[in-house]
Amino acid sequence: MTLLAAVAVGLAVAIVSVAAYVTVRQQMYQNLDDSLIQRAGQAAQKGVLTNLDNLQKASADAFGLSDIRVGVLSATGDKYAPINSPLPPMGDDELQIAQNQGDQASLRTVGVRNGGSHFRVVAVPARFCPVREPCNYDDGLYQPGALVVAQSLGPIDQTLHNLGIVLWAFGLIGVIGAALAGNAVARSGLRPLARLTGAAEHVARTEDLKPIPVAGTDEISRLAMAFNAMLGALAQSRDRQRRLVGDAGHELRTPLTSVRTNLDLLAQADKRGGLRPEDRQQLLDDVRAQMDELTQLIGDLTELARDTPQVRNAELIELSNVVEDAVIKVRRRAPGLDWHVQLTPFPVWGDERLLGRAVTNLLDNAAKYSVPEGTEKRSDGQPVGHVTVRLLDGVLTVTDSGPGIAEADLPHVFDRFYRSSEARSRPGSGLGLAIVKHAAEQHGGMIYARNVPGAGAQFTLWLPHAATQTR
């Protein structure tokens, strides 16, 4: 910012200075030219200086005009000047004026600035009397010539030199002042950014995600608010990670403890002579069931650990096919239920594996709570419950025939490892619905739960159409 201010002011000063210098120089030269042409023209018309006798007797010093040189150039190239006075510069331009005798004057600059002989030379056509007697009585005595007047440019050069020094001095002062002001403004404006940088370095060094104070509404304040929002998101992510790790450790400990206990019992029984075949088979079945539960729990944890904002490598899939496959799979595991299925085609962009797992979890949850606890089959052969599955316009609703969800539990049913008091006696890890929510969010959709009067709980999953999604 300091360099930018200095360069900007320097350019502005340079442009203004050059314009002022050129304008003043042009105006001074224009005024001098007009004055020289007017005076030379008047002198040529009066014929005083174009008379040889008058010209040689006159001297510029006599009039206090030592910076002016006067002379006459004849058409034949003869040069005349006052006695004891130097000739003005005469060349081809002046000779053409003398020979042509038109109504134009010539103007040119001779010499170099500050060289001691810098003149502005003007030549006007004149009738020259080359004899000492007046030619008034005989016009035939007059000869074509040119009256040449040279004005020294020393005063103008000195004025322009002084003007250039003043412009350079004030321009330099302006650039230095602009640099100092820009530096002060930069330091003042970037001080909040320095504090923000220090806060970022503090976070990187200490992992303390405490937000930094924000004051004002400028761009730096907006950056600080965005930084605080990022810190908040990081804090939430870290809290979720810690909670996931803590809950996972707690949930994994139970099946691992059960497996270890059963294996210890099996080992001790083998030392005492072994168990009865039926007891041994029951113990192995318990271990196998606990291992299945542990495998499912690890899979759920792995799925939730993929905390990506959206699905990668999405493909076009037919949601109705995914739901139909899930219904077939869950119906085998819950043969005692009556299934009411209504599906319409609906294409989506997404991960077929993740969506299939989410729908399967919804159907497993509905099947689990549609069967009264402790009941597998009715004595009259009728279904013990029913599940309604509908997919219309991208909205999947799964309604069970269970007791519903308690109002206090509704806001938490999609939380990780959350299990209501009624669900704790049933198998499960408390991650199934969390995976459903995770899948819905990754596909740009949403999921919510409610109780349906006269039925049980109803879960509604909405996904956007493939035509409105980006890959």
UniProtKB/TrEMBL annotation:
Enzyme Commission number, as recorded: 2.7.13.3
UniProt superkingdom: Bacteria
InterPro entries linked: HAMP_dom (IPR003660), HATPase_C_sf (IPR036890), HATPase_dom (IPR003594), His_kinase_dom (IPR005467), HisK_dim/P_dom (IPR003661), HisK_dim/P_sf (IPR036097), Sig_transdc_His_kin-like_C (IPR004358), TCS_sensor_his_kinase (IPR050428)
Histidine kinase domain location: 247-467
A molecular-function term among this protein's GO annotations: phosphorelay sensor kinase activity
GO cellular component: plasma membrane
Subcellular location: Cell membrane
Enzyme class of the recorded protein, top EC level: transferase
Keyword annotations: Kinase, Membrane, Phosphoprotein, Transferase, Transmembrane, Transmembrane helix, Two-component regulatory system
SMART domains: HAMP, HATPase_c, HisKA
SUPFAM superfamilies attached to this UniProt entry: ATPase domain of HSP90 chaperone/DNA topoisomerase II/histidine kinase (SSF55874), HAMP domain-like (SSF158472), Homodimeric domain of signal transducing histidine kinase (SSF47384)
PANTHER family, per the entry: SENSOR HISTIDINE KINASE TRCS, SENSOR HISTIDINE KINASE YKOH
Name this protein carries in UniProt: histidine kinase
Organism (species): Kribbella sindirgiensis
